Amino acid sequence: MTGLPATPATPAADEDPAATLIVSGGGTTLVATDVLLAEASWLRALQADAEGWQARLAGIRALDSAPAPSPAWTGGEAAGCVFGVGRAIDRVAEHSRHLADSLIAAAEGYGEAERRSERVARAGGVWLGFTLGRLAPFLALAALPALTSGAAGFLLGSLLTGARPGDGPATAAGWLRANPRALTDPVVVAAVRVLVSSVDDAAVGAAGLPYPVSALLGDEGLGLLGVATSAAGVRALSRPLGLFRETPVSVVPVPVVPVPVVPLGGPGVAGQRPATRATPPPAGFADLADRIPSVSEDGSQVRIERYGSAESPSWVVYIGGTVEWSPVAAEQPWDLTSDLSAVADQDSGSYRAVVQAMREAGVRPADPVIPVGHSQGGLVAAQVAASGEFNTVAVATFGAPDGQITLPPGVDAVTVEHSDDLIPALGGTPGAEDDRLLVRREVFAGREVPPDQPLPAHALTAYRATGRLMDESPEPRLQEFRATMATVVGAEPGQASRWRGIRVAGE
Known about the structure:
Elements: E1 22-25, E2 31-33, H1 34-62, H2 77-161, H3 172-178, H4 186-197, H5 199-206, H6 211-217, H7 227-238, E3 249-254, E4 256-261, E5 269-274, E6 277-279, H8 285-291, E7 302-308, E8 313-319, H9 336-343, H10 349-361, E9 368-374, H11 376-387, E10 391-392, E11 394-398, E12 412-418, E13 437-441, H12 460-472, H13 476-489, E14 494-503
Parallel strand pairs: 8-9, 9-10, 9-11, 11-12, 12-13
Antiparallel strand pairs: 1-2, 1-13, 3-14, 4-5, 6-14, 7-8, 7-14
Helix pairs in contact: 1-2, 2-4, 2-5, 5-6, 8-12, 9-11, 10-11
């Protein structure tokens, strides 16, 4: 007989709500915990096995050589045994089918309720954004006296008490330290996601156009306006001020190993090649998150691993998050300028640096590639997959504002978001449907939020912990992604190189 699938172990999520993974998407309408979906899958497998056992019993009965209608299985000890086994198998098949149907129905009901609330929130965001845009001049005039008197009172109080501007709860930083959950609240994150998607509606309202135009052109209509157009508008308005201006970029290997390079017909010149080291293939989501470069002002932002033979290589590309938070582009292309350009889908400096690093590392258009990234790096990883420049077979993003990017069919994609992480919400509400699998958890569910970290749920260390939970999960589609990755990278060690992008002369 076919062996039963292993019963999924119940993880610590039953005891720790912060360890609960919510899984949705993947081409289905289901939204549920990973354990519930694993239980449903196990019950479906049990049902299929029971039906297979019945088919085998039917084959045993067919061995009876007695002519119909007097089969030999109508009496006797063996006949009773076979009959009893058949009834028991019927009950197993029926109960497993009923339980699986109930679990799937619960997951579909939860998913439908979530989608309905999202539709209501998006529609409300369109109306709110349009209304605020229409009322913006009046609101600004009404708020001016209050802001002026408040600023004067704050300055006077500072002079009388001797407090410095950076101290105390009167400042934004002080207030956030006193209220650490203010930006780490799933409700706030959901609201920000809707508001970001409503910026274009506010612009339509401010332009004096009627509300139906906003609804028709926005995400809920033709999709001509949205987060990308809002980001592009911010870029255009900021350029005269010298803000968010893109530049050419170049990449260098880290560390650099000088080697002689002899061009055709010319003398030898000093060149560079990346220093590589042997590395085992990634075994799961924890390994993927662990190998994403950490934020560093002078370190690498891209790690590229090559597996397989020189004739038929495959690649995993890891991309780090934002390093520089100034709106003025400097040396670092992993900055706010690239953030805004990437959201606007306008060839960010970080995207161009990643593509250049991939080509210099030897990635060819037909080679299988798995891009992986955190934060801005996840946004770039999704854009690499969507661009069609490379043969992307799978992609994994952690805490990335990539909801508006539509991935091509056939790409095995997993998006990991913390519901108390504000950064993914800056990408707005998800755009067109694709088959990516969305995995969520609330990092600080039932826990104290560290007051010294503004966005602790966005930390790469937090996503690395989520990756470990995903590896322990019995959810079948998470296991399938790991199987796909294993097929791409193989079992033999590969070679890893690191790369650093640099901004050069301005536009």
